[in-house]
Amino acid sequence: LEKYFKDYIGALAKNYSWSKEKTLEAIKFWYGGYSWDGKTSIYNPTSILKLFSENTFSNYWLAGARSNFLPDIFKKENYCEFNFGEISVSDNFFSWPSGSISRLFQMGYLTVCAIKRRRGEHFSTSYILGWPNEEVKLSFARKILESLPKGKGKLIPLLEKLKDQIVKSFDTLNAKDMQKYLPSIYACIPQNKLKAKRGPYLIDNRLEVTESNYAAFFVFALKFLDFDVFGESRNFRESKNIVIKQAKQTIIAEVKYDEKSATLSRKVDSVLKQMKKQKYWENHICPDKKIVLLGLAFGDSGKTAKCKFEEVK
Hints:
- By secondary structure, the chain is an alpha+beta fold.
- The chain has helices at residues 6-16, 20-31, 45-54, 70-76, 92-95, 99-106, 134-146, 151-171, 175-186, 211-224, 264-277; strands at 34-35, 41-42, 87-90, 111-118, 124-130, 191-192, 202-203, 206-208, 228-231, 241-245, 249-257, 290-299, 304-311.
- The protein is globular and about 60 Å long.
């Protein structure tokens, strides 16, 4: 990149008043990360050329045709399967590709982040798949929100309108403000209280009311707003734990649902007590950041919400 596009990198750095090093880091963060061995990575050539042509960082992924198949996946798969976390697969994944994860990998939404080889009685290899860069994550989040009923016409415009308020509430740990805007966001989605044991996350074109889907939607909304957010487990059916990384703090959240709105405050206190007892933060300790727990509970199909922040001392 530096050999053939030196002048373009210089022009980009000048446009943003950045150093060369910071500009290269931003290019990799936005458009790099594609790998087949978990070590050597390459850039998305189409986005790179568009970047240098426009001299502006932007999401160029959605301009291509690679996102046209996503609505079909969202109609067939459960909403909570996708959480921006890592996914472990075996050799068979590449030999006999099938399912939504395979299609996402083939279309460039997922890439190989690492390869783990185990030696023993039976030699085995596992591949850790992840999202290659910020451009892909933002594109995926937008598409999955657009796939929801009223996603394009109501939900996305509301999120864009509330963006500054949402960001400020997380920066300042303002739970009261969060309790005001969350119900308005969830109210944008037609919901179905009939719980299905299997099947897609949409029932009769309505969101199935489960803690898993509520947690998944919370993550997609934050990712759409460019938060560094992901679920801790492979999917939200296994765990509703959510990690939100910010410059000065890491927020670990858990989402609960209770149809009885009167019990939501107790739900929040209960989940915070559980998070502290089980030390949810142990894998996220960083000397330069404080750890904050967030208990979040919804009721009455998202019409009411209670939440509380609590810093880990």
